[in-house]
Design a protein that fits this description.
The complex is a heterodimer of chains A (111) and B (114). Helix content of chain A is 0%, strand content 60%. Chain A has no helices and eleven strands. In chain A, strands 2, 4, 5, 9, 10 and 11 form a six-stranded mixed beta sheet that branches. Chain A starts with a strand and ends with a strand. In chain A, 35% of the residues are buried.
Chain lengths: 111, 114
Amino acid sequence: SQQGEEDPQALSIQEGENATMNCSYKTSINNLQWYRQNSGRGLVHLILIRSNEREKHSGRLRVTLDTSKKSSSLLITASRAADTASYFCATVVSGYSTLTFGKGTMLLVSP
Amino acid sequence: DADVTQTPRNRITKTGKRIMLECSQTKGHDRMYWYRQDPGLGLRLIYYSFDVKDINKGEISDGYSVSRQAQAKFSLSLESAIPNQTALYFCATSGPGGLGDTQYFGPGTRLTVL
């Protein structure tokens, strides 16, 4: 069963705009991670946020975590065509040691 | 140079055939994972191994088996392939820093079962 669910399923924006993707999950977590996948390729880790953290930044990425709402958001600022990819959230459920992935958000950034 | 490699990259096989997918890593990680990805379903965990003597079933292990030949090698076998095992398969590794660490993925194997 899916622990994380991303929203929206697909997002289309213009270069320079910001892109926001959301992830909701069902049970308490140890940490939440975001990964990017370019078409048909392996996933690449973007950022990890622990359950006791509320916000993290990495370059143009900003991730927030609200454990009371069991949700996270990924913001990509000043999007570029190269940001076109699928983005997945993955959670580590408390007491477990493996990742559970959501179904992903497909982001299309048009020049 | 890729840290996590998978062979083959593409494979077409027939129903009932035995097939092995191989994964090697040079990251020195103890933990290795096999996932499958189906369109619209994200990644689902098949098996994982935290060291050479440790093998664990994931969410969807039925129809699959694995072998951890060495710290750096983790193979996935389909004993008798069936069409609904057509998918993109990924191997991943993670380090010993703690539970739920960042995972590093291979490029994937696209498997088609006819």
